[in-house]
Write a structure and sequence with these properties.
By secondary structure, this protein is mostly helical. It folds into 4 domains: 23-116 and 125-225, Orthogonal Bundle (Transferase(Phosphotransferase), domain 1); 264-280 and 330-425, no CATH class; 291-328, no CATH class; 431-612, no CATH class. The chain is built from 28 helices and 5 strands. Residues 1-219 form the Protein kinase domain.
Length: 612
């Protein structure tokens, strides 16, 4: 999802991320033949989703009636749109991406590329947007005739038939004759027939893209029914976020369709986080659905193993194959946990200074929870709901509500909102994405070698940061900082300083870079100068004095053994200090939050305390 600029939510009206819909086009096909106007509306909405994906460099490649869902109003939502991208265009899995009946001919002709083959072969190019147009054409054909295609053919025969369409003049007529529905096709309006022919153009060079097809005259009557989608301005942007906010002339329109299901109005990230706090366990759900299956290790051994490493008699691991099951997570347990939370808790008044907590039917319990230890508060579902909603509203009012964010951060920061809250505490503002994108992160520089050594050596403690994608993001963020600060240099420990910001903003490198760039001048001023000996000597002097005050016995012992902190030990000290804040330890993340909400001298005190 990091490919989409709306990092926390997919705002497009044609991408499904939030809701489980009761039916898809798969059920619609066999029920009845749809009206042509309905088919055109479905096609246009699907093209809207495909266009939005293509704009962000994503190709669906698994488009089928199963993955085109409909909401209660009949609007289209595309599902499973990230499978082709997240598998590196199918390279990372042992199964093909897509469904045989809906694969474009050029996709079938490429075959399956395997890197383990002994014969050298050229890796095929990734599929483009036009492959989805062919899939859409097959789906629209099925909607028009009210039946599924290729049901009497096995998979190999389907693929052969699709490839033989290169030898025919009219793909649409051949498909209709093959399935005995030529009369139905001939009765369709010319606009629908023209649309089907354009989608089912065999050669991709002559087939239109989703963007080109949306502008076709076929949709001249349909397109005015849809308003142009405008993506909301992000939190850190140079644009005015309230520029497009307007109130209706009739204020009653605001509360005409009051939805009492307040939880459904929250983002998918918030609901999932609260679901986990309420006792939800995703792995347990997958085990119950038999998607995750345990297998005794002895059963995975081959029967024969030769000296060259070739093995025989080893059963194929089914867990590496595609399981297209969709698991719906029940919210009953979460809703039961929040049944006493009133609707007013979802809309706290930010200007009310009389109470730090939103009002609810269980306000007494919330007030009591606020006095509990932090580790208990972070596990309290109702308390976290109120804190998340409060911080969400405060951050949406940033920087106007910056002072109140500081005030609430001193109480506690909900873990889910920690990344954005840290950015607000550090004073990050402006068009951070444009600034980050403008930095050259590709040209080799002398620091590259040291960065390449430090990242894999120092960051194996977390699965996310130790992943190949985590290493790549580390390199880009660190290199961006080095390139954009020519007066400063890369010292050991800078990568550990970057780690918490990258972890919290893993899908937002620009924000991780902005936080790091704001943190260093405030808390490590001049630390990364090429000659920083005088700066370090000042800090070491303060460090020694504070150790003497904090732990006189330790200070006397260091003096007796002749240990004098100097410049040569500072890099090690700084690295150990950074690594001491292990990312997967929530208590240390809370300490970081305290650091950011206090003065820059507090870090030196904390460093002394931990060192002692």
């Amino acid at each position: 999802l990091s490919k989409f600029k709306g990092k926390n939510k997919i705002f497009s009206g044609a991408l499904c991320m939030k809701i489980s819909y009761s039916y898809s086009l798969y059920e619609t096909i066999s029920q009845d033949v749809l009206y042509c106007s309905t088919v055109l509306c479905i096609a246009f909405e699907v093209l809207q989703g495909l266009q939005y994906m293509n704009k962000h460099g994503i190709v669906h490649r698994a488009l089928s009636p199963h993955n085109i869902l409909l909401d209660r109003k009949g609007h289209i939502k595309l599902a499973k749109f990230g499978l082709y991208h997240m598998t590196a265009h199918g390279d990372d899995v042992d199964f093909p991406i897509g469904y045989p009946s809906y694969l474009a001919p050029e996709v079938i002709a490429q075959g399956i590329f395997k890197t383990t083959d002994h014969m050298p072969s050229k890796k095929p190019l990734p599929s483009g947007p036009k492959s989805d147009v062919w899939s859409l054409g097959i789906i629209l054909f099925e909607l028009c005739v009210g039946r599924k295609l290729f049901q009497s053919l096995d998979i190999s025969e389907r693929l052969k038939f699709l490839l033989t369409l290169d030898c025919v003049d009219d793909t649409l007529i051949v498909l209709a004759e093959e399935h005995g529905c030529l009369d139905i096709i001939k009765e369709l309006p010319e606009t629908v027939i023209d649309l089907l022919k354009k989608c089912l153009t065999f050669h991709p060079s002559k087939r239109p893209t989703p963007n080109e097809l949306m502008k076709d005259k076929v949709f001249s009557e349909v397109s005015p029914l849809y308003t142009l989608f405008m993506k909301p301005t992000s939190l850190f942007s140079s644009s005015l976020r309230c520029a497009d906010l307007t109130l209706p002339e009739d204020i009653s329109q605001l509360y005409k369709d009051i939805n009492n299901d307040y939880l459904s109005e929250r983002s998918i990230e918030e609901v999932y986080y609260l679901w986990c706090l309420a006792g939800g366990d995703l792995e347990k759900e997958l085990v119950n659905k038999e998607i995750i299956r345990s297998k005794p290790p002895i059963c995975t051994l081959p029967n024969f193993l030769f000296e060259d490493g070739e093995s025989f008699g080893q059963g194929r691991d089914r867990s590496s194959l595609l399981d297209d099951t969709t698991v719906t997570l029940s919210l009953c347990q979460l809703r039961n946990r929040l049944k006493d939370v009133g609707g007013e808790a979802f809309y706290p008044l930010l200007e009310d200074d009389q109470s730090n907590l939103p009002h609810s039917n269980s306000n007494n319990e919330l007030s009591a929870a606020a006095t509990l230890p932090l580790i208990i508060r972070e596990k309290d579902t109702e308390y976290q709901l109120n804190r998340i909603i409060l911080f969400d509203r405060l951050l949406k009012a940033y920087p106007y509500k910056k002072n109140q964010i500081w005030k609430e951060a001193r109480v506690d920061i909900p873990p889910l909102m920690r990344g954005l809250t840290w950015a607000a505490l550090l004073g990050v503002e402006g068009a951070i994405h444009a600034k980050y994108d403008a930095i050259d992160k590709d040209t080799p520089i002398p620091t590259d070698r040291q960065i390449e050594v430090d990242i894999p050596r120092c960051h194996q403690y977390d699965e996310l940061l130790s992943s190949p994608e985590g290493h790549a993001k580390f390199r880009r963020v660190l290199k961006a900082w080095v390139v954009s600060h020519p007066d400063l240099v890369y010292w050991q420990g800078l990568d550990s300083l970057c780690a918490p910001f990258l972890y919290l903003n893993f899908n937002n490198e620009a924000l991780a870079y902005a936080c790091m760039s704001a943190f260093i001048p405030k808390y490590l001023y001049n630390f990364f100068l090429k000659d920083n000996s005088h700066v370090i000597q000042e800090y070491l002097t303060v460090f020694s004095q504070m150790i003497a005050f904090h732990d006189p016995e330790l200070s006397n012992h260091l003096n007796e053994i002749g240990f004098i902190p100097d410049v040569s030990t500072w890099c090690i000290n700084r690295t150990c200090f950074s690594l001491g804040f292990l990312i997967f330890r929530p208590d240390f993340e809370d300490i970081r939050s305290v650091c950011l909400s206090e003065s820059n001298h507090f870090c030196v005190l904390l460093d002394t305390t931990l060192g002692a």
